[in-house]
């Protein structure tokens, strides 16, 4: 019985790789299976041994590039990195509708660069970088290359016969630049134009050309008077008071009166009433004065509301022997009462309103908790990490005191990260 020996039949491409000096570019697993005898024989084979060997002459122009890239680990890494960047770019930005609109603004640059590199990189591959179709590219090319003087935007009139005539665009500009309609909405300007039979397009087209022409109309906003910011430099130098209204789920309105130390933003007291109450403001002032009065004058800042400007508050302030001076914001002084107004928004939107309070009983209960949290628990950016109570008690306002652990953790972070054996990073 005659036994046959199975011999491996190697792909001709492998032989070409070795014959042309690209052995090192082959996968390691494949190289391990090639015997030294085969390698030596293929290296010394004549080029015309195989039919169709003429193809070698066709590809030899690329061999030097293949060799240089294959022999350079850095080149491989760079190419791989560019592919990753391109892929990640498209994954992130494909979901944004405005990306293609933004690219269309640079159609001339895109067309020019693709035309420059098309001898090296096929157009279809180049388009993948910008993630645009061949049809879109041809559209760009038509607009860029085939410019037409008969068109306002130099678009080819044969390719785009539905575009507006120059005189129609001049009419749109005439209406949009007219001072009489400067603060009108675009739709009102449009309807005036069609009523006068000066414009003969739909509203969408009017909007489109308005944008192309660079007109971004907006409503007129009355400039607000700018007031300087009131500054204080220590606790009990300036106090401010205000009233905010909160409605509970039972439909009742509750008027919450607050007194704040301006420097530390510490809430010195509060009262809940059914209406704006002069007696509530007097009570808050009196209680804070007896607890915190000092040898220096306290400026008391409020707005001109009836709860602040009245005989009840005035008589109490007179009884302090000029220890307190009442000033009306934006009247007696060129400052607003913005600090306590900002607090009103904080206490309502960050504390009270999310609780969906049902009635005054719940409001009173939770307000006590929330004012305590605001004063003693919640650090503030404007106080560089202090709570209002800390700043009111004299703790320096300096964020550096809260960053002492940064240096130690930075060293630890670097050490831990350098010891990490991340498989993805090693690829």
CATH homology superfamily name of the domain at 238-392: Ribonuclease H-like superfamily/Ribonuclease H
Largest sheet: 5 strands, mixed
Globally, the shape reads: flat
The N- to C-terminal Cα distance equals 53 Å
CATH architecture of the domain at 238-392: 2-Layer Sandwich
Q: Provide the CATH topology of the domain at 238-392.
A: Nucleotidyltransferase, domain 5
Strand order of the largest sheet: 3-2-1-4-5
What is the rounded Rg?
A: 39 Å
The CATH class assignment of the domain at 238-392 is Alpha Beta
Return residue spans where pLDDT drops below 50 for at least 5 consecutive residues: none
Counting DSSP E segments of at least 2 residues, the number of strands comes to: 5
Number of helices: 18
Structural class: alpha/beta
Q: Name the average pLDDT.
A: 82
The share of residues in helices is 40-55%
Strand content: 5-15%
The arrangement of helices and strands along the chain is: HHHHHHHHHHHHEEEHEHEHHHH
Give a nutshell description of this structure.
The protein is of the alpha/beta class. Helices cover 47% and strands 8% of the residues.
Could you list some keywords that capture this structure?
Integrase_cat-core, 5 strands, 427 residues, alpha/beta, 5-stranded mixed β-sheet
Q: How would you summarize the topology of this molecule?
A:
Layout lengths: L11 H8 L8 H4 L4 H8 L11 H17 L1 H21 L4 H7 L2 H11 L5 H8 L3 H12 L20 H11 L9 H10 L7 H10 L25 E10 L5 E9 L5 E7 L4 H15 L5 E5 L8 H8 L5 E5 L9 H15 L7 H17 L11 H5 L13 H14 L8
Parallel strand pairs: 1-4, 4-5
Antiparallel strand pairs: 1-2, 2-3
Helix pairs in contact: 4-5, 7-8, 7-9
């Amino acid at each position: 019985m005659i036994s046959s020996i199975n011999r491996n039949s190697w792909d001709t491409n492998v032989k070409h790789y070795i014959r042309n000096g690209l052995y090192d570019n082959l996968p390691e697993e494949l190289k391990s299976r090639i015997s030294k005898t085969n390698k030596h024989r293929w290296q010394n084979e004549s080029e015309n041994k195989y039919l169709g060997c003429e193809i070698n002459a066709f590809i030899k122009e690329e061999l030097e590039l293949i060799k240089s890239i294959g022999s350079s680990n850095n080149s491989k890494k760079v190419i791989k990195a560019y592919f990753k960047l391109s892929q990640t770019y498209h994954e992130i930005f494909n979901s944004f509708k405005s990306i293609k609109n933004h690219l269309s603004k640079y159609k001339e640059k895109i067309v020019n660069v693709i035309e420059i590199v098309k001898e090296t990189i096929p157009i279809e591959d180049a388009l993948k970088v910008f993630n645009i179709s061949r049809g879109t590219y041809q559209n760009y090319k038509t607009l860029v290359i085939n410019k037409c003087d008969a068109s306002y935007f130099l678009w080819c009139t044969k390719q785009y016969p539905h575009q507006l005539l120059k005189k129609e665009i001049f009419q749109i500009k005439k209406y949009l630049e007219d001072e009489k309609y400067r603060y009108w909405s675009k739709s009102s300007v449009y309807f005036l134009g069609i009523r006068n039979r000066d414009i003969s397009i739909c509203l969408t087209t009017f909007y489109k050309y308005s944008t192309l022409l660079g007109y971004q109309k907006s409503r007129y906003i009355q400039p607000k008077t700018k007031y300087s910011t009131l500054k204080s430099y220590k606790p009990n130098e300036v106090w401010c008071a205000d009233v905010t209204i909160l409605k509970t789920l039972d439909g009742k309105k509750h008027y919450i009166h607050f007194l704040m130390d301006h420097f530390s933003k510490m809430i010195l007291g509060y009262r809940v009433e059914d209406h704006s109450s002069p007696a509530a403001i007097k009570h808050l002032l009196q209680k804070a004065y007896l607890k915190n009065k000092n040898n220096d004058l306290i400026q008391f800042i409020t707005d001109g509301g009836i709860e602040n400007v009245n005989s009840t508050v005035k008589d109490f302030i007179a009884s302090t022997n000029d220890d307190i001076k009442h000033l009306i914001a934006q009247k007696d002084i060129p400052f607003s009462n913005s600090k306590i107004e900002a607090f009103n928004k904080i206490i309502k939107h960050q504390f009270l309103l999310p609780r969906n309070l049902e009635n005054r009983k719940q409001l009173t209960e939770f307000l006590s908790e929330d004012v305590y949290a605001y004063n003693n628990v919640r650090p503030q950016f404007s106080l560089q990490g202090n709570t209002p109570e800390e700043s009111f008690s004299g703790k320096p306002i300096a964020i550096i005191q809260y960053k002492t652990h940064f240096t130690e953790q930075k060293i630890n972070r670097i050490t831990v990260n350098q010891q990490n054996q991340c498989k993805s990073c090693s690829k």
